[in-house]
Amino acid sequence: MYLSTLDKPKSANWKGLSGNVFALGTVSLITDVSSEMVAAVLPLYLVIGLQLSPAAYGLIDGVYTGATTVLRLAGGYLADRTNRRKAVAGFGYGISAVAKLGLLAAGSSLTALGFVITADRAGKGLRTAPRDALITLSTPSGDLGRAFGVHRAMDGIGAFAGPLVAMAVLAASAQSFDAVFVVSFCIAVFGVLVLALYVEDRPEPLERKEPIKLALLKDPAVRKIVLAASLLGLVTIGDGFVYLLLQKREGLAFGWFPLLAVGTSLVYLLFAAPLGALADRVGRLKVMLCGYGALTVVYLLLFGPLGGWPLLVLVVLLYGVFYACTDGVLMALAGPALPERLRTTGIALIQSGQALAYLGSSVLFGLTWQFWSPEAATRTAAVAVVLALITTAALLGRRKP
Fold it and tell me: TM spans, by residue (predicted)?
């Protein structure tokens, strides 16, 4: 099978979406309300409240996503080895829920904050691949773009609501961050309960005659997807950097800062399902590359001639489109290339490569901002995205036998 065939649709209706997709989407919606309550204000809290340098923030931001690479692989391997993807995902969701309480005790200690953030991301690392594998195993291959689009749209609803809930809790509790953490924990526990009660596992016969890692690494299609995903992760800077640069340039009041994440999430949830369906029709690779094209424009706009509210609206719009074009579409693109019995491990391998590359990206961007300039850092990032797009198109595009 040539990699280019992975983006060919096999069906063109919504009937292939099972109840499992919507149940997993509900879990992600609830969990994202919890996590985004914290994440929406974290960059401002660390850089403005604790006075971290851009380089230090880049390190923490990288750790936030990239330091759990090994646990992503472990979660994928364990889910495939035990054939209990739901249990592994549930354990990951549970760790993230408990970590919300850890924020109560962390205070302003960077060491404690780092430990709690790492625990929270460890839970995400364990749960993501088993969850996405359950989606692929619950959906016909021709409907994967739609399935991931619907799931990511529901996830986006949670990401949209989370910052608004945080703002409401802060307003009702006299600006108490402890209240935000407690409410976030309670919501996260509810998400775990929904997973336990409504999500069905998708076990297959356990027939393995060679090591999982060896079987995956022998497949050139998998190697190309891992390489492309890692390269794209290396040229993607964190949301916090984008929002901080907007706040810095436009002098945005601190109280409005969380609304940048809200706007991005709103665009994401509106476009995730339609763009997932479009990817099934016109090709998943094409849609994904267009998403990274939108990201390039975002980086150029951060220090371009446009300013004021038109800049804020355009950046938020394009940033949301970027996520809608890439987040679930990459998993839909990769799914058919991965054998069912190794599906979770393969997804974990792809996500781990991207997360590890993202760690390097955050550190490098933070250093470039601090020791060169934010303008130079964003323009360098834009050029890097263009080069990564060309390389990805060459890796995953149509090839003759």
Answer: 91-117, 156-174, 180-199, 225-246, 252-273, 285-303, 309-334, 355-372, 378-397
Share of the chain above pLDDT 90, in %: 25
Reported pTM: 0.69
Task: Write the class of the CATH domain 17-201+211-396.
Answer: mainly alpha
Checking if the pLDDT of 388 tops 90, the result is yes
Q: What is the pLDDT at residue 108?
A: 67
Question: How far apart are the C-alpha atoms of 163 and 159, rounded to whole Å?
Answer: 7
